[in-house]
Design a protein that fits this description.
The protein has a single domain, classed as Alpha/Beta hydrolase fold, catalytic domain (Rossmann fold, 3-Layer(aba) Sandwich), CATH 3.40.50. Helix content is 36%, strand content 22%. It has an 8-stranded mixed beta sheet with strand order 1-2-4-3-5-6-7-8, with helices on both faces. α6 links the parallel β6 and β7. α1 runs parallel beside α4. The protein starts with a helix and ends in a 6-residue tail after the last helix.
Length: 251
C-alpha cells in the first residue's frame, strides 16, 4: 500500500462515502461488520491493494453513547489496540456518554498485524461509522495504546484532513524524514501525548512532544500521569485529553 497515494486519492473518497443507515439505531456496545467494497465501492476499495481484500468481512467493536440521537452528530474516536480486541474499556463509558463520542476499534488489528493493514482498518472505521451514524467531521480523532499509539501517530499527520486530533497513549513516533504533505493542516489540529511517570516509553513520548513543538505544531498537550506505568490511563485523564481535542480553534 502506497501511503501517499492513499492520502491524496482515498481520503477524499472516504469523506464522501456516507450512506443512510437503515433499521434500528444501535447504542451501547455494538459489533458491526462490512467489506471495503460494501463501504466504498469498487474503485476506492481497490486502493487498499493487498492490505485488505475488498471482499473480506471485517468486524469492528463500537461503543455508542446511550443518549446518541441521529439528529445530533457524534464525535468519533478511532482506537488502534495492541491486542486482538477493539473494545472500549467499560470504565470509559461515562466519558464517551458525556462527550457524545463514539468509540470504534477493529478486531484483530493488534501489534502482530502489518502496519499497512492496521492503517487501512482504521480508515475504513471512519466510513463504517459514517454509514451507520451521524458523525461530526470536526470531531474525528484517532488514538491508540503502545504499538497502537505508534500506528496512530503515523496516521494522524498523514491523514490530517480526516483526523482533526489524536491521543497517543504510551507509544508515539515522529515523522522523521517524511514531512507530512499537509503540514498546515497538521498545525491546525490537536494532539495529546499521554504517558505515565513510570511508563517505559515516557522519555520517548516527551521527545516526540518536543519534536512537534519544534515543527511549529502548537496545539499539543503533554499529559504525564503520576504513578502510571505502561497501561491505559485513568478515566479522568482520558476525559482531559478528549476535552483538549474538543477545544475551539484559538483556545
Amino acid at each position: 500500500m502506497n501511503s501517499r497515494h492513499l492520502q491524496t486519492t482515498f481520503a477524499a473518497l472516504l469523506l464522501a462515502a456516507a450512506a443512510t443507515a437503515s433499521g434500528e439505531t444501535l447504542r451501547g456496545e455494538v459489533s458491526l461488520s462490512a467489506t471495503a467494497h460494501e463501504l466504498l465501492g469498487d474503485d476506492a476499495a481497490a486502493l487498499f491493494g493487498s492490505a485488505v481484500d475488498p471482499e473480506e468481512v471485517v468486524e469492528w467493536e463500537l461503543y455508542v453513547p446511550r443518549d446518541y440521537e441521529p439528529g445530533s452528530p457524534a464525535g468519533l474516536l478511532v482506537f488502534i489496540s495492541p491486542t486482538d480486541s477493539g473494545k472500549m474499556p467499560r470504565r470509559y463509558q461515562p466519558v464517551l456518554d458525556e462527550k457524545n463520542l463514539i468509540w470504534i476499534g477493529a478486531k484483530f488489528s493488534g501489534n502482530r498485524v502489518r502496519v499497512a493493514r492496521r492503517v487501512s482498518l482504521a480508515l475504513l472505521a471512519t466510513a463504517l461509522a459514517d454509514r451507520n451514524y451521524g458523525i461530526d467531521a470536526s470531531r474525528v480523532y484517532v488514538s491508540g495504546f503502545s504499538g497502537g499509539g505508534r500506528t496512530a501517530s503515523a496516521m494522524a499527520p498523514e491523514y490530517a484532513q480526516v483526523f482533526t486530533g489524536a491521543i497517543y497513549i504510551c507509544g508515539v513516533n515522529f515523522w522523521d524524514g517524511l514531512t507530512p504533505k499537509r503540514l498546515d493542516q497538521v498545525r491546525d489540529n490537536r494532539y495529546v501525548f499521554l504517558t505515565g511517570n513510570k511508563d517505559f516509553n515516557r522519555t520517548e513520548t516527551r521527545r516526540v512532544h518536543r519534536a512537534y513543538r519544534r515543527a511549529d505544531v502548537e496545539n499539543i498537550l503533554l499529559l504525564e500521569v503520576a504513578g502510571m506505568d505502561h497501561r491505559m490511563p485513568p478515566v479522568e485523564d482520558l476525559a482531559t485529553a478528549i476535552g483538549f481535542l474538543d477545544l475551539d480553534p484559538g483556545q
